[in-house]
Amino acid sequence: MADFTNNELITAYLSRQIREDDLCFVGVGTNGRAFTLAVGMPLAAVRLAQLHHAPGAAVYWGNLLEPDLSVIPEHFTQDTFTQWQAAACPPDTGVKCDMLARGRFDVSFNSAAQLDRYGNMNITAIGDYRNPKVRLVGSLAQPEHFAFVRRPLLLMDLDARSFVEKVDFITSAGHLSGGNSRREAGLSEGGPALVVTDKAVFDFAEDTREMRLKSLHPGVTKDAVLAAMSFVPLVPETIPETEPPTVKELAHIRSDIDPNRILLKV
Amino acid sequence: MKEKLTTLESALSPIVSGSSVAIGGSLLRRQPNAAVRQLIRARVRDLTVMSWAGTTAIDLLAAADAIRRWEGIYVGLFNYGLAPNFRRAVESGRIEVRDFSETAMVARLRAAAQGMPFLPIRTLFGSDIAKVNPEQIRTFDCPFTGQKLQAIAAAEPDFTLIHGYAGDKYGNVQWPVVRDTDDMDQPFASGAKRLIVTVEKIVPHEEIKKQPSLTYIPGNWVEAIVEVPYGAHPAACDTLYDEDDAHLRDYVARSKTAEGVKAYLDEFANALPDHAAYLEKCGGLAALAALDVKGRA
C-alpha cells in the first residue's frame, strides 16, 4: 500500500464523488486548516476528478465560473483572485445566486461551526441568537447550498464541539428532524449527502435521515470516532475502511495539482 | 449634467444618527473605509447598517459604537478571522442582527431597484433565519401554482455608500474590464435612494464617455462623489492595490479589547481632520504605493 497523508486520502475520496459534467461550488475563504478544508482540498479534488475520470467537471469559485484549474494560484491575496483566468466572471454575485436557486449546481463543499445528527448546520451564532455566546459570520450562501445543490459534501474535522446533537441555530436546513420533515418544510429532496472528516466518512440513513458512520479511515477505530462526537450516530455492524488513494491519484495530487503543497498544506 | 464632486465631510453630512445606511464592497474589496472613518469622526450613532459580505467597514463602525442594527449576509474579517468589534457588540446586545442568506439579500436589493415591496424566494424553509424574522421574511402561496414561497422585504436604506474605482465630477463611476466581481455594488446602487460614492480617482468626463458600457453607477443616480485615493485602505481595491496585511494584523491585535480599539480609532480616525491626514498617518502615498498591484494603470 502506498504511503499517503490524511489530506491526500480525503482529496482522493472527494474526487471520486465528482461525476462527469458536475458543476461544483467552492468557497474562497480563510487561512490555515480552515483554508485547506474550505478551498484547498475541494479545488484539488475537482482538479483530480478532471484529470482522472471527469474531464467535464467544472468549478464555480468566488464569482469565477470555470477558473483554470491547471494553474491554481499559490498564494491568495486580493490581486491573485482578480487575476485568476476563467471562462466567465459574471457581473455580480447575484448571477451565482440565480444559478443556485435554479438548481444548476451538483456539488458544494461546506463546513460549519456546528453540525447536528440530521445534518443541520450553523455558522450564525453559538448560544441564543439574540444574546449569543459567540456571534459567528452570518449565513453567506450556505442556506442555498443545502436548499438547492444536489449533493452537498461537508468537509470538517471531527470534534465534539462541532458535531452536536442539535445545532444552536439552523443556518442551513439539512434533514431537519429526520424522516420527511425536510420535504414537509417546503424544501426539495437533497440536503447534505456526505460528511467527510479527518477520521471517518458519514452519510445519512435513507429512512430516518440520521447521520450514519459509512467508513473509517485506515487505522482509525470506531471508538476514536465516537469519542470525537457529542452524539452517537447510526453505526452499522460492519464498517468498511475508507478506500485509500491509488498510486495514480497520488501521482496526480503530488506532481500535477499541488506540487508545492499549498492546497493540502495543513 | 450636474456637478456632484465634493468633500467627504460635505457628502456625508446628511447622514445623521438614526439613519439607515447600506454599505458596499465585499470581503476585503472596496470597503468604503474612508467614508466610514468620516462617519466615526462625525460621531454618528444608532445606524441601521445593511451589507453584503462586510468586513472592515462594518467592524470599524461597530468599534465606534455607531451601529444599532445590522442586516446582511456576513460580517467577519475574511482570512483575518471573526470581526472582533462587531462580535463584541452583538454578544453584548448593543447591535441587533437580522441575517439574510445570499438569495434573500439579492431579493431585497432587486425589490428595491424595481420599486417593489418584496420579491419571493424559496431558500429559507426550515432555516432559523426565517423563524427569527417574521418582520421581513414571510411565507405566502404562489397565486399561480399554490407553491409555498417566501416574501423577502425590500432593502430600503436612507443612504447607500459605495467605494468605486474611477469616476468623473458628474458622479459617473466605471469599473475596469478585468476586476473581481464577487460583490453586489451595482445592485446596491440600483436600489439606492440617496447614493454617495467615493472613488480612487476622478477622471475627465471625456474619458468616461468613450466607454459608457463600463459605467456601472451612472452619475444620474448619484447625490455626491468624492475622490479618496486608497479609500478602501486597509482593505483592497481590486486592480489597484492589495489589502494592507500589517495594518490589518495590527487592527486585529488592538481589537482584542474595547480599550485597545478605542485607542486605534482615536489614532486613525478621531484625531485626524480628514482622509489626507489619514494617508499621511499611514506613511503617505509613497509608502502606500507598496500595496499597489503590478500593472496598475
Explain how this protein is built.
Chain A has a single domain (6-257), classed as Glutaconate Coenzyme A-transferase (3-Layer(aba) Sandwich). Chain A is an alpha/beta fold and 266 residues long. Chain A has helices spanning 6-16, 32-52, 78-83, 94-101, 142-148, 181-184, 222-227, 247-257, and strands at 23-26, 58-61, 64-67, 86-88, 107-110, 114-116, 121-122, 125-127, 132-135, 151-155, 163-164, 194-196, 200-204, 211-216. Chain A is globular. Helices cover 28% and strands 20% of the residues of chain A. In chain A, helix 1 packs across helix 2. Chain B is an alpha/beta fold and 297 residues long. Chain B has two domains: 8-99 and 156-291, Glutaconate Coenzyme A-transferase, CATH 3.40.1080.10; 118-153, no CATH class. Helix content of chain B is 32%, strand content 23%. In chain B, strand 6 and strand 7 form a beta hairpin. In chain B, helix 2 (33-41) runs parallel beside helix 3 (56-63), helix 2 (33-41) packs across helix 10 and helix 3 packs across helix 4 (84-91). Chain B starts with 7 loop residues before the first helix and ends in a 9-residue tail after the last helix. In chain B, 54% of the residues are buried.
Features:
heterodimer, A: 266 residues, alpha/beta, Glutaconate Coenzyme A-transferase, nine-stranded mixed beta sheet, 8 helices, B: 297 residues, three-stranded antiparallel beta sheet, 32% helix, NagB/RpiA_transferase-like (chain A), Glutaconate CoA-transferase subunit B (chain A), CoA_trans_fam_I (chain A)
